[in-house]
Design brief:
With about 425 residues, the chain is of the alpha/beta class. It folds into two domains: about 150 residues, Aspartate Aminotransferase, domain 1; about 260 residues, Type I PLP-dependent aspartate aminotransferase-like (Major domain) (Aspartate Aminotransferase, domain 2), CATH 3.40.640.10. About 40% of the residues lie in helices and about 15% in strands. It contains 13 helices and 14 strands. The strands form four sheets. Strands 2-8-7-6-5-3-4 form a seven-stranded mixed sheet, sandwiched between helices. Helix 7 links the parallel strand 5 and strand 6. Helix 3 runs parallel beside helix 9. The chain is globular, with a radius of gyration of 21 Å. The mean pLDDT is about 95. Bound molecules: pyridoxal-5'-phosphate (PLP). Pyridoxal-5'-phosphate binds next to helix 4.
Amino acid sequence: MSGSRTSLLADRFSPFGTTIFTEMTQLAMAHGAVNLAQGFPDFDGPEFIKHAAARAIGVGSHGQNQYARMFGVPALNAAIAQGFASRTGLNVHPDSEVTVTSGCTEAICAAIMGIVNPGDEVILFEPYYDSYRASIAMAGGVARCVTLHAPSCADQVPPRCTPLGGEGQFWFDPHELAQAFSERTRAILVNTPHNPTGKVFTREELKLIGELCIRHDVLAITDEVYEHLTFDPDLPHVHLATLPGMRERTLTLSSLGKTFSLTGWKIGWAIGTPELSRCVRAAHQFMTFATATPLQWGAAEACVLGEPAREAIATLVADLSRGRAFLSGVLTACGFRVHAPAGAYFIMADWTNVRSGGKRLGDRFSDDIAFCRWLTQEVGVAAIPPSVFYEHPHHGRSMARFAFCKRMETLEKAADRLKKSFI
Ligand SMILES: Cc1ncc(COP(=O)(O)O)c(C=O)c1O
């Protein structure tokens, strides 16, 4: 192409570049590193769900292989509504209040595209899952970030800040949150359990968020993809939509991928009142229109949350708890300061006081990006530098994010390499 353009890329994407996941994965492959950067399991999902999808494909016979209904195959919508009701006590209509999307990523984008006008502000907690900023940019919206601070900064809690969060968890300043709301605010996006910090928002924190939404007439979008993956009985997952006055103004988003270790299926959904669902569908019908039909049939077996699904979740949570304890122990022994996650499957750990060759790594590397590149290339373990998930990157510079949703043998291999370099 000729002309005066310097780049073929539309301006709206110029701030985003290649995602850090792609970069770290390429680096991990080039150096044969154990990949604890990628946030997905290296094991497979439950057989009963795979069988259901295989039956729906109908190899050797007629299967469910044509376009699905735009907002989801009836069996899946019904299963999602039933599973949601069993967890929340909220009855949602499967056809008018549940929309099946291509993963939660599409649900996030469709929700934002469906409700945000150019110039509207959307409040996010930083660090954030990277698709939020890009989706807000696609809608022409403006992100307003409120910082989740590492627990080690707890002594910096300003006097006006009531600690509402869980013990030892990342925290935010309620005053900063209140200040982020204005007449331009259209929505707040809340991810709980939270990637990358592992924070599970407490009922008190969510109540505050709900009160602010009601006071300022703001909508809430919740990303609950890790809703089943929590490790601390004192910090259970709370659905924002269940709090007073919030059912009418919340779009609850989730997906199959994390709960059932089937991330490649990309089955997600949005739950909200018929009016909110119409907003999501307005975008969804032109983004993907519908999602892979046989995989929706497979997902329907899981999402109803019957006995086999509940067993599969319990086994996964038990395995993840072991991985979490093992990796936390190894990182701590190596000199990392581990921020124990209450949910999701990542550990954020401060690397600055780790020593290698007699030198403190905080004196050797200027930031988390340099540290994670070195860790991948020289130690042979890949992690994600979390500063890329912050509007104010200095908050993330001293940390690295390690995924523990891996087979024990993968974690052991990573442990051997870490111990060899740091103990
Ligand atoms: C917080 C969060 N939201 C959404 C997603 C994507 O979900 P899905 O694979 O269903 O699109 C991820 C995946 O890592 C995530 O961590």
